[in-house]
Amino acid sequence: MIFATVGSHPTYRFERFLRALESLPGEELVVQYGPGEPPPHAARTVPWMTFAEIVEHMERAEHVVSHAGAGTILCAARAGQTPIVFPRLERFGETVDDHQVELARRMAEDGHVVVVESAAELAAAVAEAPPRGAESALDAGTDLIAAVRAELETKRG
């Protein structure tokens, strides 16, 4: 199963990401799509999930594909995933600024995430990404938590 999530923000749509998901095999795809329009071919789509449901899907999925929110990245890492992240961008009205792309690129430098910045890259990234529980996944997210904290500190300073 491939689990995809746009996160929990109720205002910002993420149509660019949802359209990119159309390149993935639908029979394996479970999507939490928020205020947008879900990919029509997915096996299961729901607008919202509880935190527990999201964690459960991350723990069962072979791959997690998501926006590049720090909380989602941490949850995926704790579930044994190396998440494939598709950062929201300000220029498309998907978020207030480009903090997600900055965080995603920094996390990718250390191998904590796989960054996808266009729909054309998504299917290949999923095919090549390590599956849940691979050695590249973080040990309970501890290293990732430290990396996220360090990145946030550089933004404050």
Can you tell me about this structure?
By secondary structure, this protein is an alpha/beta fold. The protein is built from six helices and six strands; from the N terminus they run βαββαβαβαβαα. α3 packs antiparallel against α6.
Give the uncertain stretches in residue-range form.
Answer: none
Kindly provide the radius of gyration, computed on alpha-carbon positions and rounded to a whole number of angstroms.
14 Å
Report, as a whole number of angstroms, the end-to-end distance: 41 Å
Question: Can you summarize the main beta sheet?
Answer: 6 strands, parallel
* Count of distinct strands: 6
Q: What would the principal axes of the Cα set say about the shape?
A: globular
What is the residue-averaged pLDDT?
89
Provide a brief overview of the structure.
The protein is built from 6 helices and 6 strands, in the order βαββαβαβαβαα.
Set out the fold topology.
Elements: E1 2-5, H1 15-20, E2 29-32, E3 44-46, H2 51-60, E4 63-66, H3 70-78, E5 84-85, H4 99-109, E6 114-115, H5 119-128, H6 142-156
Parallel strand pairs: 1-2, 1-4, 2-3, 4-5, 5-6
Helix pairs in contact: 3-6
Characteristics of this structure?
157 residues; alpha/beta; single chain; globular
